[in-house]
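Q: Hi! First time asking for a complex rather than a single chain. Here are the components, and I think there are two in total. Is that enough to go on?
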Amino acid sequence: MYLLNTALVLAQEESTSNVALVLPDTAELIAGILAFGIVFFVVWRWALPTINKTLEARNEAIAGKIAEAEKAKVEAENLLADYRSQLAEAKAHGNEIVEEARGAAEQMKDDIIAKAETDAERIRIKARDEAETEKARALSDARAQVGDISVDLAGRIVGESLDADAHKDLVERYLADLEKL
Amino acid sequence: MDDRIVGYASGIFELAKAEDELERVENELFAVAQALDGSADLRSALTDPQLPLERKQAIVDGLLQGRASSLTVGLVQLVLGQGRSSDLPGIARALIEKAAESRDRAVAEVRSAVALDDDTIERLAAALGRATGKNVEVKVIVDETVIGGIVARVGDTVIDGSIEKRVKSLRQAVQS
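A: Yes, that's all I need. Here is the structure of the assembled complex.
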């Protein structure tokens, strides 16, 4: 118990001396408070509004920049969309041209083939017709020649077989016919 | 007919008439014309422009000397000298027609494969005269191409009763 009392007394003594250690002098305290008040007033009256103003300007600038950036972004997006649509259009147009060219090439191919076939057919028909004509001509020539030769032979045979009496008969017949006219 | 041929024929007609040799000249020229008609060799020799005139005249002399009157030979040489030998048959024909005309007759040119006797010629003249209504003088041309029978021509009228005609119609029938 004694020990305890002793410790308590010691503690009390010690705490009184500690507070005295921390606490400044009253004059110093007053001067401090005054100085603080002056500084506080100066800061509150002039520095704070300037800082606030600066901060506000800064905020506004940032907001403007953000808005600008937004706008630029939108513009860029629009541009991109335009570009994409143009690209798509160009692609579609290109495809169209390619399709058209392919169609034209197909048509041309078909035309050329059709023409070649027609030409071939025409040449074939012409050749056949010529061959037919040639054949007919050769036949008719041959027929005419055979006819000529036969008739010549017939004439010659008749001529040779005619004796004086036959000639006389022919002349008499001629005279008889003539007299009937 | 060609005016030139008729001109030559008229000249020869007048000359022959003046010399009183019309019938002879007529017959001889007709014979010459027949020889020319019948021989392609003779025809081409007399019309060959490369052959000198002397050669042609020598050919005619060789053919006619002793067989024809000097008047006929002279007339043929004249026509030949004028380079008209190809017209000789035409001239002979025109002369005969003119002479027949002067006797008020037409010429019947009769082609036969064989020679005809006088009796037949007379009957032909009578029959052709009846058929054409003209007085005809018959001139006979022996032409083997007739084959048989007779072809008569009086002016533009042709009366064909020849085998040649039948052969021709046979040829046409065969060819068509």
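A: Chain A has a mean pLDDT of 88. Let me know if you'd like any chain examined more closely.
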